[in-house]
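Data availability (excerpt). The following record was deposited with the supplementary files.
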Amino acid sequence: MSETHLDTEKATACESTTLRLWPAVLFALTGFLVSMGVAQFGSTNEHSILSLFLAPMGAFALLLLWWLFASRVPWLDRGIGIVLLGLALAALYLGQNNADISMVRVIFTMFALPYLAYGVVIVFVLSSSRCWGVQRWLATGYIILATAILSLMTVEGWGGDLRPGIIWRWDVAPAMSVESPNAVATLPAKVGEDDWPAFRGAHNDGILSGVTFATDWATPPAELWRQEVGSGWSSFTVIGDYFYTQEQRGDYETVICRNVATGEIVWINSVEAHFVEITGPGPRATPTYKDGKLYTHGALGAVQCLDAATGEVLWKRDLVKDTGARVPQWGFACSPLIVDDLMFLFAGDDDESDGGSAVVAYEIATGEIAWNKGKGKTGYNTPHLTSIDDVPQILMISHFGIQSFTAETGEVLWEHEWRSTRYPRVIQPVITDEGAVFIGTPDGQGTLRIDVALVDGAWTVTEAWNSKKLRPYFNDGVYRAGHLYGFDGNRITCVDIETGANKWSGDRTGGQMLLIEDMEAILILSEDGEVILIKADPDEYTIISRFQAITGKTWNHPVIANGKLFVRNSAEMACYELKMD
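Predicted structure:
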């Protein structure tokens, strides 16, 4: 048989299969454009789910239907293609070595799906001038190569917008060791005006008063030090020349005292506990300081009172054993609230029939339980001390809604049921002097304003409005001069407190904020570790200045104390000197 005849047979065989490509291009392009469009213009978790998961999965399902019923390739090749893709996805699914974290394998596989599916379509388009026999092998090679490259990656966690943090396997940070320094902190006799003794400040409201500083950050503030830090979402407590935070180090939750001037460790207190889930391992709460003692709360429920100078344990309790609570999905996250001689924590309770036992009050002198009451199965908020109509009270937000308690006895003064339906509540309430209380909930429920008043000896609670323009997840907001500044999903937003109407929507930064009251400015530590200073101006979104402070996913609240800015995430911390005016 002549060589010319063989070439003719090959050409005939190649021409017998002509790939019908346009439906695949349409499905892949539509899925990609929907994902990118929603990612660009959306802001909430529901938008993220559509962008990251639903759009790619829908496109993938349509591509499978095209491949099986409209591609025109031989049936044997269709079957082989399905098997090959299935093996690739199975290899990626089973190859995740941190599968002890729920959903990691599923999330990584869904992340990889568009790279495999859209990539094959691109290969077909680029090789459209070649015969099917060539295209088949090019697509096979691409799937094998893409699977090999993706197998070198892993999920580090996910961001506030549910976007998975994908890193190379060799970039996984090793567990930090638990050191045993035994230095002593020399603490002031009392908390200074510029100290930061608790979560979000002395009043737990994220408001800094009596401070102004230079805002020209063309040259960023001077970095005093930068230190590696164990994982966790704790913020800082700053007292005099020392500061405290919580970190995960190996199999131990640690409370660490460091020197403000250098960031060096003074002492470490450690508890054998290791909470792990997809958002990141480690403790979530921030220590609270009072009268030389430090009160702490671990992600698995360890409650401690420590000598703030030495780290010595004065007493220790287990919240799970004390209350019968279950460790919540994202770990215990509330920071201790100290009022007079009691410390308050949220535990959660499945049974509300007898009034519940969601909030527990410990005697700070002994660690004994003073009372245990309240409704709410889930919640990641910190109890909040406020005063309405000159009556001091503790507000507790949970999936139930909100309840108000007297500190001494746990008597419920008033409550408002507004159950969260899909996502847990995480952010703190915002309260005005006139008794307006704002409750934030992610996505569909938005933010509710209720007006609370004491009328003729009885408490009244009235719903004023419910805004879908402010749907915060775990990003706390602040109040100033008739306006609420916070986050709609991860987008900086301002709303009018009288109507709930949106005044403006700014950048999608995520993160946490502080109100610098005397400067009429808001400092934001973004989810990417950038410090952004904006005007607290309801008429216009204006950025004053910005600089990159740290890198990596940053959820921890920033702190300004004694002229210094403290920032951290689950990998590093840094301290900057602010030029005070």
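Summary of structural features: The first helix runs from residue 3 to 15.
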